[in-house]
Amino acid sequence: MDVLPTGIEGLDRLLGGGIPKGHIVAVIGSYGTGKTTLGLHFIYEGLKNDETCIIISFDEDEKSILENASSFGMDMERYSDNLEITRLEAAEIKESLRKIKSDLPEVIKSLNASRILIDSISVFETLFSENERYRALAALRDILKSAGITAVITSEADKNNPTSSKYGLLEYICDGAICLKYIRESQLEEPKLGIEVVKMRRVKHSRKPKPYNITEKGIEVFEREEIF
Ligand SMILES: Nc1ncnc2c1ncn2[C@@H]1O[C@H](COP(=O)(O)OP(=O)(O)O)[C@@H](O)[C@H]1O
Ligand SMILES: [Mg+2]
């Protein structure tokens, strides 16, 4: 099976090499757990491998994304010819959906892009009514699937369930879900960070949360260790 490494070695080992080509993978976690950072690793790994990559951000503009990557030692500007960054404003979200539907297939095709990061889908989801939301996500999935691109889509977690996305819909349109969470042994201790592959079609994987850290080099996953 063809896989795309995420660039996070411990995570790639957990996944048996990386994300299967053409998969759409949700990265779910509460704020500050490293979702954007994981997405940046995935894009940077593609760039280093001469692939063309796309970032669609609902949070940050291009400058801030590049600075963020650079703070983890990822020099994305060096690969700017192979990187397309688009920021979609929350205020124009419905316009964004139209734009995604009309422009994205063409952009992916003309760039021959192999990887896309969408960060974060939660802002996008918030602006739809409950009835429209699933349809908007399904439309996005259809576009990504027919383009054959491999996608990482980040999402805030549900307040009461750290393995579920904010609206509980994203995981149904995705081939895989990776969850990033704070794990507390007791209220008095500093929380530990745990990464869990909740779902990954066509991959045999463990569901056990594994410890990870965020440092100036980005995310490091310790797949052979236990959290406690
Ligand atoms: N240069 C850095 N060195 C160490 N840790 C960092 C650095 N930059 C960010 N972090 C940590 O990463 C976290 C943010 O990660 P981010 O990927 O933006 O999270 P999310 O997208 O899930 O909100 C911060 O809370 C901080 O703890
Ligand atoms: Mg983020």
List the helices and strands and how they pair.
Layout: E1 3-4, H1 9-14, E2 19-20, E3 24-29, H2 35-48, E4 53-57, H3 62-71, E5 83-87, H4 93-111, E6 115-119, H5 121-126, H6 130-147, E7 150-158, E8 161-165, H7 170-173, E9 176-183, E10 192-200, E11 210-215, E12 218-221
Parallel strand pairs: 3-7, 3-9, 4-5, 4-6, 6-7
Antiparallel strand pairs: 1-2, 7-8, 9-10, 10-11, 11-12
Helix pairs in contact: 4-6
The structure holds adenosine-5'-diphosphate and magnesium ion.
InterPro entries: Circ_KaiC_arc, KaiC-like_dom, KaiC_dom, P-loop_NTPase
GO molecular function: ATP binding
Pfam family, one: ATPase
Walk me through what this model shows.
One of its GO terms (molecular function) is ATP binding. InterPro entries: Circ_KaiC_arc, KaiC-like_dom, KaiC_dom, P-loop_NTPase. Residues 2-228 form the KaiC domain. By secondary structure, the protein is α/β, with parallel strands linked by helices. It has a single domain (3-221), classed as P-loop containing nucleotide triphosphate hydrolases (Rossmann fold), CATH 3.40.50.300. The protein has 7 helices and 12 strands. The protein has helices at 9-14, 35-48, 62-71, 93-111, 121-126, 130-147, 170-173; strands at 3-4, 19-20, 24-29, 53-57, 83-87, 115-119, 150-158, 161-165, 176-183, 192-200, 210-215, 218-221. Strands 3, 4, 5, 6, 7, 8, 9, 10, 11 and 12 form a 10-stranded mixed beta sheet that branches. A two-stranded antiparallel ribbon has the order 1-2. A hairpin with a 2-residue loop joins strand 7 and strand 8. The radius of gyration is 17 Å and the shape is globular. The structure holds adenosine-5'-diphosphate and magnesium ion.
